[in-house]
Amino acid sequence: MDSALRSLLDWYASVGVDVPNVPPARVSRPKKKPLPVQNNLSPATSKPIAEVPSSRLVAPELSKIRTLEALKEAMNAYDAGVLSDTARQPVFARGNPQAKLMVIGEAPGREEDLQGKPFIGPAGQLLDRMLGAIALGEDDFYATNVINWRLPKNRNPTPDDLATCRPFLEKHIELAQPKVLLLIGGISMTAMTGLTGIMKNHGEWQNVTIAGTTYPALPLYHPAFLLRRPELKKDAWRDLLSLREKLLTL
Ligand code: URA
């Protein structure tokens, strides 16, 4: 059995959905790929945070940007201060920009920083399985993060970090024009709605207004959190079913 199917069945089993008894998957180890060749982005430096002058940050001029490609280029060219110093590259998006569903996560981790794509590490793999369980493949969603650069030592984002990335995120949503936002984890939920406490707000539909358009937005447990708290997968499953219902009405 193909390992994607096996992991989808494992997800179903973990949320209590009956699945047929299937033999264990044969594990084939992926060949190690060489690290991607660095492009013309500046290499990560080990400069201490305090030495980076905040005056380097200038508000990005995004009003003339009309395409996602142009937005990506603007981010590649942008000096995001401490974020650019420690990250290898900005992490833009993954999936189908025409999809109804836009997934908004927290911040890139190590794998995402290396490959320049969001949600490709262990949490991303679980997210794919969760979305796969409601029949959404990579063509059915478009994913990005509230923070586009890997944070120093993977720390939580500060209000300054969020403010640095916010204009890019708003432009990103405005250009992609999704029908629904899926807010992955508490940091994304708070950044987009102002609500705090993912335990009490997950699965509760919210309205988020960006550039004059109001989007239905669903906070969901972060898959990294579910990896530590698998007993919460049942709640996440209910939230995913609510997402599926919503998508069917649009
Ligand atoms: N990877 C991402 O791109 N975002 C997250 O929130 C977690 C992992």
From TrEMBL:
InterPro entries hit by this protein = UDG_Type-4/5 (IPR051536), Ura-DNA_glyco_family4 (IPR005273), Uracil-DNA_glycosylase-like (IPR005122), Uracil-DNA_glycosylase-like_sf (IPR036895)
List the Gene3D superfamilies hit by this protein, alphabetically.
Uracil-DNA glycosylase-like domain (3.40.470.10)
| Catalytic activity line of the entry | Hydrolyzes single-stranded DNA or mismatched double-stranded DNA and polynucleotides, releasing free uracil
Give the species this sequence originates from. Litorimonas cladophorae
One GO biological-process annotation of the entry reads:
DNA repair
Residue ranges for the region (Disordered) are 22-49
- State the UniProt keywords alphabetically: 4Fe-4S, DNA damage, DNA repair, Hydrolase, Iron, Iron-sulfur, Metal-binding
EC number of the protein: 3.2.2.27
Q: Which domain of life does the UniProt lineage start with?
A: Bacteria
Does the keyword Secreted belong to this entry? no
Give the family, as the similarity comment puts it: Belongs to the uracil-DNA glycosylase (UDG) superfamily. Type 4 (UDGa) family.
Q: Which GO terms describe its molecular function?
A: 4 iron, 4 sulfur cluster binding; metal ion binding; uracil DNA N-glycosylase activity
Enzyme kind, highest EC tier: hydrolase
Protein name from the UniProt record: Type-4 uracil-DNA glycosylase
Query: Is the Transferase keyword given for this protein?
Result: no
The Uracil-DNA glycosylase-like domain covers which part of the protein?
92-241
Q: Which CDD domains does UniProt cross-reference here? A: UDG-F4_TTUDGA_SPO1dp_like
Q: Which PANTHER family match?
A: TYPE-4 URACIL-DNA GLYCOSYLASE, TYPE-5 URACIL-DNA GLYCOSYLASE
